[in-house]
From TrEMBL:
Superkingdom of origin organism: Bacteria
Signal sequence interval, chain numbering: none
Record-annotated GFO/IDH/MocA-like oxidoreductase domain positions: 126-244
Protein keywords: Oxidoreductase
Entry protein name: Dehydrogenase
Source organism (scientific name): Acidiferrimicrobium australe
Amino acid sequence: MRVAVLGAGRMGQRRAHLLASDPRVDEVVVGNRTRARAEEVARAVGGRAAGLEEALDTGPEAVVVSLATANHAEYLLRAIDLGVPILTEKPLAADLEGTWAAVAAARDAGVAVQVAFMRRFDPAYVEAGRLVASGALGTLYHVHMTSHDRDVTPLEYLPGSGGIFRDLHVHDFDAARFLTGREIAEVDARASVRAHARFAEHDDFDTATVLATMDDGLTVTVSGARHDPLGYDFRVELFGSADSVATGLGPRTPLRSLEPGSPGAPPHAYEGFLERFSAAFAAETAAFVDLVAGRGPNPCPPEEAARAMAAAVACERSVAERRPVALSEVEVAL
């Protein structure tokens, strides 16, 4: 099969490499606004370079949208017009209305759109979800999520990022639904700029805390930070009446214990998401090829992204109005 990868940045490059290594993929077409960058990535994977429009005109059997956030919606809709399966990085669009419009477009066209929420494919997350679904953890008492970036978000990324809730915590909102099998009913969020003024300049925050209540009353807390001096720290802790488990907890977890005899901070903490979730990205991309080949279901339809985006929008309203916000307040009717 021929797959067009739109975007030659970090994610586009990773997707192109993963696709090129899959024996079911005959050709990878790398499309990018900057032709030289497309040619560089295409050479590295043994593919073909093209402009964005040219890549869509090569007759691909599938499309991967790995462009900058601001360009997702435009090229997602163009790919939908081709009538082929699509793997798109989050978000579908910059806002909730645009997100639901993309959902409707895919639905009306009968096109399978897989949204890239890679944590659904991380081995530890998959096992945690299995334990919850099987009842092995008993009654869930509480879920706590830690989402701390290692490096401060680059200044040039901030204007189009969408903000901490839409860019960073949208993954947590999807993971909360994926792990528990429940819907988020309400959020109570707070956010601030603690150390990095660049965020305030773009009406954004470098730290956030969310208390989410699921539709069965389960509480989920989220700790978010745009900088962690010890490393990239993304964990989930699930506490139940029969067992308690964690994902992302191990010898590379960037925490320094003060208990006597503890080894201190890990010498090789994760540096970023591409390293921490490497196995997840590989499994996610392979699942997309399965989808294209007709050998597997869509593991993350666009409606899933819309529900996570709704939680992010509700958090923004909660911060602005300093009150809990029910997701029903931000629902968009089709």
